[in-house]
# Entry
Amino acid sequence: MTETADPIPVASFNQDELETPPLTLGQLTWRRFRRHKMAMFGAVVLILLFLYSFGGALVLSEKYANFADTPLRLSSPSLEHPFGTDTIGRDVLARTIYGGQISLIIGLTAVLIENIIGISIGALAGYYGGKVDALLMRFTEAMLNIPEIFLLIVMAKYFGGKIPEINMLGREFSGSVVVIVVIIGLTSWMYLARIVRAEFLSLKENEFVLAARATGTSNFEIIFRHILPNSIAPIMVAATLGVANAILAEAYISFLGLGVQPPTATWGNMLDGANNYLESAPWLWFFPGLLILLTVLSINFLGDGLRDALDPRSRAA
Amino acid sequence: MSETQPLVVVENLTKHFPVTSGLILQRKVGTVKAVDGISFHIDRGETLGLVGESGCGKTTAGRTLLALYPATSGRVTIDGKDVCKAKGKELLGIRRNAQMIFQDPYASLNPRWTVNAIVSESLRVHHLINNEKERAERVKELINLVGLSSRLVNRFPHEFSGGQRQRIGIARALASEPAFIVCDEPISALDVSIQAQVVNLLEDLQDKFALTYLFIAHDLSMVRHICDRVAVMYLGIIVELAEKNELYENPLHPYTQALLSAVPIPDPRKDRQRRRTILPGDVPSPVNPPSGCRFHPRCPLAQDLCKQEPPIWREAAPGHWVACHFA
Amino acid sequence: MSDLPIIKNTLLEVSDLRTRFHIPEGTVYAVNGISFSVAEGETLAVVGESGCGKSVSMLSLMRLIPIPPGEITSGTALYRGEDLFKKSEAGMEDLRGKEIAMVFQDPMTSLNPVLTIGKQITESLRCHLGLEQDAAERRAVEALERVGISDAARHLHDYPHQFSGGMRQRVMIAMALACEPSLLIADEPTTALDVTIQAQITELVEHLRDQYHMAIIWITHDLGVVAGLADRVNVMYSGFIVEEANVDSLYEDPQHPYTISLLAALPRVDQRRHHRLKSIPGAPPSLLVEPKGCPFAPRCEHVIERCHVENPSLMPVGVGHTAACWVNVQKGIPR
# Structure
């Protein structure tokens, strides 16, 4: 124990300062998040949407979703087909369930790719600065200047049909799903890279980074264990918005006929299928469109709430 | 290494920062001569004070000393090893032996790490204790050593006060059992009564572990209290260096004299009696230091010689060094 | 209340000021019933460490506390006989800057970075004294020269970021004094400045104070600065005033254990080291807890049973000297 000539009673520190029970930053964040009503609403809706797409599969089989009951084609919503039937007689409700699975998976995995690329590039550029930064940022800006749609189309045309089918979750996915995911990931990482770079530029000047260098910690550890955890807030927000963006991107591609190929449904290609029936059979675009809208809105609310909750400046003492 | 050799030797250390301008291609338009040739040594077990006002370069000097900034020129030897040239494993070894305590208790601890993670980092990085459980035990010992309860090791920095965070920073610096610690304004951000706690702790640790300190500060009263010898910096160079009582009682350089006379004394009668030298003007910028003696624009004794020739660093009395034409 | 015989006119008299803040974590008891007065031309120093309530109390009487989350639960502040808490907001705006001026710690955030300093000074002059632009500019130049800024006319067109810290603080003082107020409230004005610049500024303030017979409330944690500048001193702790004295008595004969400990924790630039600094164990109490008993009791080495139960009010301990303590520290017995 201490042999100080002027003993400092250890117990007194305990009593005075830390009467509050230990609250991790995670718990503090959750508390702040809870107060944000719109964000909670968004989170709830999102959970419901996931339950709908993945839980609904337990109720209606995929075979049913792909079953073309031709005599009933283009029938409006009824008891038997609550969302109506499509151009060849398939049940729209079932297709939105299975379509939802793909759209949501595309959203999540595209964001994963985006994050890995965006964080890596942003972190390296922001931390090392100088020539590394200049090179990486010019590359990022070049990518930004190319219109996303153009990139999407070019890549879709080139890669479409070259990737085989995959088996996952008890379903068979057309290889075009992978293509879409990769394309979206490769074309939307730039925003995140810029944000992460900005975070790193400012965070690396902090004294705790200098302290880590004084300890002898390697650059790799400083980047990933010291600085990155402190920039979770903007990354999380960008990630949630990225999911929304990916789902919309999938819709665009599908609308151009370059997306996931039928019979596999996605919300996006269902919209495409409704192209010629906008007025005559509105249920064809209404339901997938509504689901896309709900997903994107709730993700945006969630992102708002996360951003406020994670703001280190509003940290309670 | 011989016991009588100084632990730290600094020779003509300089650190210049380029000032760049331009959007696409950064052009160098000037140089900030933050540290412009300083030399001193620190003996084992000694506390050397480095004082000066803002812009004098003392913080930059401390960081360059530990190779946190690459030196522009000069030599630093810690325990016989050349710091400026060291790389890789050798540099890691130096870092283990020479640590730093930082000024800002709120910024110098990673807000996302627990106290345990913060204090055990150097044990991990230097492979001193490879077993996680043993490391945690050692962290508890260190935390107790600085006067905090070991029950607090899993808490986060934001749960502690400024003084407590500074103690955590001290525990972190001690973890690798260094011989030399650079204390960069460790108490400036703390309340008066907490300053005394932390200073007493630093002294106790020095006695217990035979530590050597470089104590960088602007509070001249505290420096007199804790240091053995004191160096005064102005615009990137050391203008005076002496044993502490010699410096405070017999200051030779006009800047030191003015600095000492400006320090408030908590004794109304004495304060009324003292004669103050008020320096005109502001502390100049290190981008364009004045010609000749850097202090000449503000110096009450300045003559033509001072504008033309920088004064030589010489030993005016035993152990008392000064850079002034007229001291 | 101080029993100093009244030889000067009382300018400001504050009674039983209590200020609280309502935050999600609870109620912050920032100021817990303080009373003090300032006479014309007098310099009162308010000393304490962070969280003691020294800044909040001054902001309260200037009505600059945001309400909510702030709440001034009691108190009167008689300025020249008129209660500041009963004045309208318009009346307060009229008073601020003209009669009572404030100078803050960080001149960078108190000066508007997008307006020239000339504009900021003349705005104040035109607003309070109703001067025309030309007359206001002339007075602004005078004000800058008075604070030792040479070539003032040219500097009127400069922006705050073009000045150094010391110069900016001079500009703040110039702005504060432009309308020749009777009372200057300075909240840690030199804390962020280098010691040689601090000496310049304190010398300037002393000179201007003598020239304009201005009263000053100087808020600081620096007991060195106080010794040189103040006539009287109030020591604050945890929202209470724990000792009041004239400056010589406070340093030569401190009576409250907190004051004594604070002085014993100070190193000296003019003396050889005699002994270790005396540190106060523990930390100040949380302001979220309603104070019961003496706030210093948990850390006091002279504590007796009564201290935990009853909060002492300020009691006379000498001429013009009061302390809020149940114990006579020199004799070691209860009062």
